[in-house]
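Input.
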Amino acid sequence: MNKIYGLIGYPLSHSFSKKYFTEKFEKEGIVNCRYELFPIADAKDFLSLFEQNRELQGLNVTIPHKVSVIPFLHSLDDSAVKVGAVNVIKRSGEGDLIGYNSDYYGFKASLIPFMEGNFNKKALILGKGGAAKAVEAALKDLSMVYKYVSRQESESSITYNQLNEQVMNEYQLIINTTPLGMYPAVDEAPALPYDFITPNHYFYDLVYNPPITKMMQLAQNKQAKAKNGLDMLYLQAEKAWEIWNS
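Output.
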């Protein structure tokens, strides 16, 4: 039987997933498998993909559906429960749709070498979507102190307007989980006080297209360390493949 895997989200013009899996299948001699993009605006519409195509074995999930797909799944793996978001869906042998989270694994595995052992640094998580939940779970595992930054203040977050020199000095790991700066809007960047960046700062942008985002460039201009999300993409994709074939 041919097997189909794919990605749901909206929009999907930024995604490298189809290229990644297509090249993986060719390089590893994996036959009768293909990977497709399914741009859907409403999360519940993914159900029809499985209903209409018995060859569809699993999906990756990206912005904005990592949380909104959860009510439509039959069950959640421990990884998805821990994070509170889903980025992998597997169709079981019985036809049940099970949610997993491989973002958590990909982020944590790529953050560890980037931080060079400096896990005493406090982190700011930009955004509060599904990817941010995976970042939070990884930081908890590493016993790192963190705070959310979003457009509206809450008990768990501060606003961009509250990011002054004192906050920037205290929190020296900045993690962007928003789509700001993603292709094609490459001139956008989170509204940070970039003048307060120092060589002691680490900037991790989950965006990977373009390879150097505007936020990363502004950080590098201040001699800060900066990393994009491509390693995370590769690591979470390999984890997804492991999940689909387990």
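The longest helix spans residues 230-244.
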